[in-house]
Design brief:
This protein is α/β, with parallel strands linked by helices and 580 residues long. The protein has 22 helices and 22 strands. The chain folds into three domains: 234 residues, Alpha-Beta Complex (2-enoyl-CoA Hydratase, Chain A, domain 1), CATH 3.90.226.10; 235 residues, 2-enoyl-CoA Hydratase, Chain A, domain 1 (Alpha-Beta Complex); 45 residues, no CATH class. 37% of the residues lie in helices and 18% in strands. It starts with 6 loop residues before the first strand and ends in a 6-residue tail after the last helix.
């Protein structure tokens, strides 16, 4: 019977890098990391200590305090969408306010040894109001839960839409109303949903928990179609939101909620009890008797492997060696399409397929005297990715894409070999594969190469960026050359007749380059939900452990083949890797 033979890859840092360069890279990453750590703190602090005190005076916990009590002791919380709306202000004039994290926390949290998707209104930001992109952020978390059949826990403390910006959250296809459709789709697919209402639950927020399987309310919580202020204005009735929609009504009369509890702490204990009733995780089963293991080489060393200059290459196999169990890897098609690395490894004891861009110069397949730059897609590499990912899809192996891609090859040879057709074949495969996919934008994510390597439009379960990520059609300098091509000669020098004309073109090119470079800032792509989370490079292994475990947690909703009958063995044998 076929066996999965994993081999050690990688080597100690000192064997392939100058110590001074490694140290300089670490210092550079440390400076970048500080920017994102400060940003995370700003988001987590919400509107500040004043609003934390306001929550505590009501006898309630802050949302982050609730999550910390909810999670298993010693486990970590893995947020997604941290930087949505980061740095933006909403409202007008002196009333303009920021919306840290779009006023909602979405995260992967381990509860009773099962991962759940937690969706929790941040009650330190406008009492948990919904801002522009809040619905989309909630829906993205629901999408992850739906596709992986992972339970959802809603921690609801929401005063409804931030009304001055209602036009950006209410009417669209993915506006607030789509949250409730996702509630229904989750229910239709039998994905468990547990809702805890801790306080305000008004209008759209009022609909959010109802489709959940189980709804809890604290004694100071209420769910209403319209709050007391609106009812007073519309009907001249002197009432409170609690009297018209508190637990007395919805637990005892309307049946819109199931249970009432005295306070936040009790609510969290009850939610944990509900999660404990669900089927256990399938992870141990799919480890096939082998225990998870850390990489043989320290994952934190990745931060020193990446060069300060994005144009400088590095050894991708050394990166892979620092994220997979025991640094063991089964590489397939090692002698074909060498600009791409494909193979199988384990992460936290679970099998994954890995597709990565090789940054080194590689041998031209026909012209032996020609070396080609890495990080570019050529015909054989594209065919290699297509074949490998289709086999992983057939075998039920989750795929991790490690992107550092400058784009497709261009020029006469690319057109003669039909690179457009080969690329379309890969895009078709990305579009129709059903196996869970995780995409990591390590550094460059350029042009159609970003699409071909399963970028966000091809619906990975999660797309992660790093502080080094440069997501754009092309680099700023290249785009400036394209924009001003008619003003340049064959060597891209400015054609001019007067100094004024030269200065004008030069200034225009510099402005385009500056703007495009700013647009590539990972904070911008994360702010507008073009990527799910910005992680630090030393966090890559923990995030991958978490998402990979989530892909194996629920049993029965997708095909997972025993490794003995993988089609990968067949293509490996036919490619000549196995001796006859």
């Amino acid at each position: 019977m076929a066996k999965v033979l994993l081999e050690r890859i990688g080597s100690p840092v000192e064997s392939f890098m100058d110590p001074g360069v490694y140290k300089a890279n670490l210092e550079h990453m440390k400076r970048l990391n500080e920017i994102y750590l400060a940003g995370r703190k700003e988001v987590k602090d919400g509107w500040g200590e004043k609003y934390v005190e306001r929550v505590h005076k009501k006898g309630k916990l802050t949302t982050w305090e609730r999550i910390e009590l909810l999670k298993d002791p010693g486990s970590n919380v893995f947020p997604i969408g941290t930087f949505v709306d980061f740095g933006l202000e909403f409202g007008e004039g002196g009333n303009a306010r920021k919306a840290p994290g779009a006023g909602v926390i979405t995260a992967f949290v381990k509860i009773e040894n099962r991962y759940v998707v937690v969706i929790a209104n941040d009650n330190t930001v406008a009492s948990g109001s919904w801002w522009p992109l809040t619905p989309e952020k909630i829906e993205r978390a629901q999408e992850v839960a739906l596709r992986l059949r992972i339970p959802v826990v809603y921690l609801i403390d929401c005063s409804g839409l931030f009304l001055p910006e209602q036009s950006k959250t209410f009417p669209g296809k993915t506006g607030a109303g789509y949250i409730f459709k996702m509630n229904a789709l989750l229910s239709a697919q039998q994905v468990p949903q547990v809702a805890g209402v801790f306080g305000d639950c008004i209008a759209g927020g009022g609909y959010m928990p109802i489709i959940s399987d189980i709804v809890y309310m604290t004694e100071q919580a209420y769910m209403v179609i319209a709050g007391a202020a609106l009812v007073k204005g519309g009907k001249s009735e002197h009432i409170t939101s609690l009297t018209i929609g508190g637990p007395d009504i919805h637990v005892n009369l309307s049946n819109c909620a199931d249970h009432r509890v005295p306070d936040d702490h009790t609510m969290l204990l009850k939610i944990k009890e509900e999660i404990a009733k669900l089927p256990g995780s399938g992870v141990k089963y799919y480890c096939y008797g082998q225990e998870p293991a850390p990489p043989h080489f320290d994952p934190a060393e990745i931060e020193g492997i990446f060069p300060m200059d994005y144009r400088v290459t590095y050894d991708m196999r050394q990166v892979i060696a620092r994220i997979v169990d025991n640094s063991l890897f089964w590489e397939l098609f090692p002698n074909k399409g060498q600009e791409i690395i494909t193979g199988v490894a384990k992460i936290n004891g679970l099998y994954v397929g890995i597709i990565a861009n090789n940054q080194d110069l590689t041998q031209h397949p026909v012209h032996k005297n020609i070396k080609r730059p890495g990080g570019i897609l050529y015909r054989d590499g594209i065919a290699k990715m297509t074949t490998f990912s289709r086999a992983c899809n057939s075998d039920g192996i989750p795929i991790i894409w490690l992107q550092d891609i400058a784009g497709f090859d261009i020029g006469p040879e690319a057109e003669k070999v039909g690179l457009l057709g080969w690329g379309s074949n890969l895009l078709y495969t990305n579009s129709t594969n059903t196996v869970p996919v995780i995409t990591v934008l390590l550094r460059k994510a350029s042009g159609a190469g970003y699409y071909a390597m399963n970028g966000r439009p091809y619906e990975p379960i999660v797309q992660l960026s790093t502080p080094l990520t440069r997501l754009a059609v092309m680099e700023g300098r290249t785009l400036a050359i394209g924009a001003f091509r008619t003003k340049l000669d064959e060597n891209f020098n400015i054609i001019f007749t007067t100094q004024e004309e030269y200065d004008q073109v030069k200034k225009g090119m510099e402005e385009v380059e500056r703007r495009i470079t700013e647009d590539m800032n990972p904070l911008l792509t994360s702010r507008q939900l073009d990527t799910d989370e910005i992680i630090l490079l030393h966090e890559l292994r923990p995030y991958l452990e978490t998402v990979v475990e989530m892909t194996y947690q629920s049993i029965g909703y997708r095909r997972v083949k025993n490794p003995r009958i993988w089609s990968l063995h067949d293509i490996d044998a036919l490619s000549g890797s196995i001796g006859g």
